[in-house]
Every structure is written in structure tokens, then in C-alpha cells.
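Researcher: Predict the fold of Carbohydrate ABC transporter permease.
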Amino acid sequence: MSQSTVQRPVRAVKDTAPPPKHARRRRKRKEQPQQFRGLVSPHTLTTRRGKIVYWTVVTFVVTGFTLAFVFPLYWMVTGAMKSPDELVAVPPSFFPKELNFSVYAEAWELLDLGTFLKNTLIYAGGAWFFTLTFDVAAAYALSKLRPVFGKVVLALVLSTLMIPPMVILLPAYLSVVELPIFGWNLLNTPWAIWLPAAANGFFIFLLKRFFDSIPRELLEAAQIDGASPMRILWSVVLPVSRPILGVVSILAVVNVWKDFVWPLLVLPDSEKMSISVGISSLSAQMPQNVLIAALVIASIPAILVFLVFQRSIMAGLTAGSLKG
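Model: C-alpha cells for Carbohydrate ABC transporter permease follow.
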């Protein structure tokens, strides 16, 4: 009687070979606690000595930087109240002998600051309008419409940021003297300030970065409803872009307000000068304390704009840095 052969299932033998060296090294790295790398460890900051050293260094650094930035403003404001003899005294005095605020009214009348301020407001307002009009349209086209050569155009726009402003000063001036194609002379006109101010590659880059962070589904929903690209820009993109629009607006106004070289070239007429050029043109005829008072008056609008909108500036600059 032949015995039937019974086939038993063959069990899979586990691979008992040790893992490779690089796998063991990765496992050891994961098992080890993450170590703190820095100048001062968190444990040191919890000690009494660490807290004293930390707050001493922080107080010294903050106080030093504050004095470095605020002291010139203080010196300018108090210098206007000093007499010409006090200004040239050696060693200089940190406080005026008497608070003479009438020098500010004298500077307003002698230098005709009202006319210069009015001119500068016109230049800054027009630069703000044309900057938002052209730069927003360009950034929207590069970000959402995506033309055929959009990347090439963006690269050319960003390349202008690498060119020093003094290099393009002469070509820009020649363009203002005789506008290409039209042949118009824009000297002593606000257009000489407005048009160059609108051609700003940095603003286009900021706006495009923010527009890239807007979800495309939001625009596609508006397209399904039958909205045109212009309608989407006006009703969808601009309302959610208020932070970056505020930043661009503030920077555009401040750039025109503090500019000196370009208005000096394109606005030679004394009745059309901006405030910085006007004060400089009359500086040789005025006492030094009156001149300093005029500089204080000219600085007040820009300082107020920064103090009021400084939170909007920081929020707008970081608004488009992260997506999600």
C-alpha cells in the first residue's frame, strides 16, 4: 500500500538580515531628541541670570536704535527754535534757551510754503492715481490673464530693479523733453512727474505677488456667472486686495513727496517747484533757523502718513507671502 505524499504549505521565512547602515543611522537620528541650536538656550533664559542678561541686552539695543532714528528729528525740531548764534555755538546745546514757535510762521511766509505744498500735493495725488491705474492693470494681466510672453515681460520688468536710478536719469529726461512718438515737451507740467512715477517695477512685483495668492476658484466662479475680466478685476480682485493697495498708495505718495533730483530737472519754473526743490532754491537767502523750520514743516505730512499707516504697511508687505 503506497503512502500518499502530503504537501505541507511552505511558510515564508522572515528576512532576518540586519537593516542597512544608513537606515539604522536615520532611526537613531529620529530617536534622539531634537537639540536647540542657537546662541542662548531656552533653559538659560529661564534662569534669573539669563533673564537679567536678556532684558539688559534687549533694552540697550532698542534704546540705541530708537535714539539713532529719533535724535535727528529732535535735533531738527529744536534747531528751528534756536537763534543763529545758538546753532553755530561750540559745543552745541541740546535744548534751546527759549521756545520760539514764531519761526515756523516766519518760514511759512518767507519761503511761500503754501504754494510748494499745493504743488507737491498735486504731483503726489496724480502719481498715486496713475500708479494704481497702470501698475494694478499690469500686475493683474501678468498674474491672472497670463499672456503669451508674460514671463518674458515680468523678467524685463524685474530687471529694471537692478538698474541704478542715476543711470536712467538722462534717458528719462530726454524722453520728457520730447515724448517718443508724440513729440510733446512735458517740462514744467505734472505729467513729467506722473508718468515716470507710474512706471515702477517694484510696485508691479508686489501687486503680482498678492494677486497670485488669490484663489483661482474665486475668479472661475465669477467667470461662470458671466463676468468679464475687467468686471472680475473691479468687483472681485480689488476688494480683497485692499492691504497691498494701501501699501502701494503710501509708498507712491511718499516717493514723490521726498524726491528731489527728478523734480529739480523737469520743473525749473519757480511757480511749479515741489516743496523739496523750492526750499533748496531759497535756502541761500534765509537764516539757518528759518530754513530748518521749513524742513520741519515739509517733513510733517510724510511722518504723519507713516505713523498713521505703519500697521497697514507691514500687513500689506506680508499679506501675499504665504498662500493658503
